[in-house]
Design a protein that fits this description.
By secondary structure, the protein is α/β, with parallel strands linked by helices. It has twelve helices and seven strands. It folds into two domains: 21-322, Rossmann fold, CATH 3.40.50.970; 324-355, no CATH class. It is 45% helix and 9% strand. The structure holds thiamine diphosphate (TPP) and magnesium ion. Thiamine diphosphate (TPP) is lined by residues 81, 128-130, 158-161, 188, 190-192, 253, 257.
């Protein structure tokens, strides 16, 4: 397992040279912002203000580190859990919250609950199905490569996704055609209530890459310097024509699978406690504080500011008028079939009468 920063925050290896001081601070801020976002969403969910949320606590280094290793021309395929990636990619909080509340400014018009995508930041909205985006990422990467572009495509997935057929078809195809795809797999130890030991008998997930003839590496997913360094290495190799790679970020999902899950039913408090000690944010905090680039006061100030920004963004999104129910069918059909048009008419009549 590749690790550059010890759990005590001591540098043990050589990070990528593009990790300048200002970049390190930006990465730290994005990780802290992601945790505040998580906390906020988990607070407003029980009030009935959002329907569902998938927390990312514990995985901030994997998500923020990988997102920062990309360039603007690269394409990102997040899952339902990658809010930290969206934050690191610069998605404005109001836009994110418009999506969460599915209001009339929702960029996706109510399609696909709690997943975000936009063309401008090259973020492809995910399908809820596990591993479904892997073949799509490979297809887009093939098209982009044959058009002579220099974009790399990163597809996020969980440990559970490596047991799905789509993943194996996608990685095989990517290997054969040397498509510029990074399969970024966060092994957070659980697929809802199913542990990794019931997903595979393989010693690691990274070894699966070997059968497809592509590089496969396991990186400490709670070490943001290692994640950034490894992802950047393979992203740039893919950009230069070296083909795909499979990266297993070894990490842990501290929270529930989603707000619809209760992990106390299938895992021990002791396991969670052990992983809390490996917290990715406190590791980076120790490292940056020792370098004189960060302090507790600075972090407190940043948290205050970010929370206020988030509160305002949530307020704006919540007070924006809701989508018209019929918007759910906009942008779905090139030419709306008659039976859908009939249903739309009925829906509009119904909403005019009852909403
Ligand atoms: C094809 C399919 N089967 C089942 C589900 C229900 N489901 C949603 S998330 C999930 C677990 C995914 O686990 P993993 O890939 O490890 O990702 P994680 O949630 O841990 O980030 C399952 C089974 C689904 N969305 N799609
Ligand atoms: Mg998982």
């Amino acid at each position: 397992m590749i690790r550059l920063l010890s759990p005590q925050g001591v540098l043990e290896g050589e990070p990528d040279p593009t990790l300048t001081e200002s970049k390190l601070v930006k990465i730290m801020k994005d990780m802290v912002a992601a945790r505040v976002f998580d906390d906020w969403m988990l607070r407003i969910h029980p009030m009935g203000r959002v329907s569902r949320y998938a927390p990312a606590e514990g995985q901030e280094a994997s998500m923020v580190g990988s997102a920062h290793a990309l360039s603007e021309v690269d394409w990102v395929f997040p899952t339902y859990r990658e809010f930290p990636v969206l934050i690191a990619r610069g998605v404005p909080l109001v836009e994110l919250q418009n999506r969460m509340f599915a209001n009339s400014r929702d960029v996706l018009k109510g399609h696909e609950i709690t997943l975000y995508g936009d063309r401008w930041r090259r973020i492809v909205v995910g399908a809820g199905g596990v591993s479904l985006m892997a073949p799509i990422a490979v297809g887009m990467a093939m098209a982009s490569k044959s058009a002579g572009e220099k974009s790399v495509f990163i597809v996020y997935m969980g440990d559970g996704a490596t047991s799905k057929g789509d993943f194996h078809e996608a990685i095989n195809f990517a290997g054969v055609f040397k498509t510029p795809v990074i399969f970024f797999c966060q092994n957070n130890q659980w697929a809802i209530s199913v542990p990794v030991s019931l997903q595979t008998r393989a010693e690691t997930l990274a070894v699966k890459a070997e059968a497809y003839g592509i590089p496969g590496v396991r990186v400490d997913g709670n070490d943001v310097l290692a994640v950034y360094t490894v992802v950047r290495k393979y992203v740039e190799a893919a950009r230069a024509g070296g083909g795909p790679a499979f990266i297993e970020a070894y990490t842990y999902r501290i929270g529930a699978h989603t707000t619809a899950d209760d992990p106390r039913r299938y895992r021990s408090e002791e396991e969670v406690r052990r992983w809390r000690e490996l917290d990715p944010i406190s590791r980076m905090r120790k490292y940056l504080t020792a370098k004189g680039l960060w302090s507790v006061e600075e972090e407190e100030r940043f948290i205050e500011e970010f929370r206020e920004e988030l509160r305002k963004a949530t307020e704006i999104a919540e007070s924006t008028p809701p989508l018209k129910p019929a918007a759910i069918l906009e942008d779905v059909y090139g030419e709306t079939p008659w039976y859908i048009a009939d249903e739309l008419e009925e829906l509009e009549r119904y909403s005019a009468e009852t909403l």
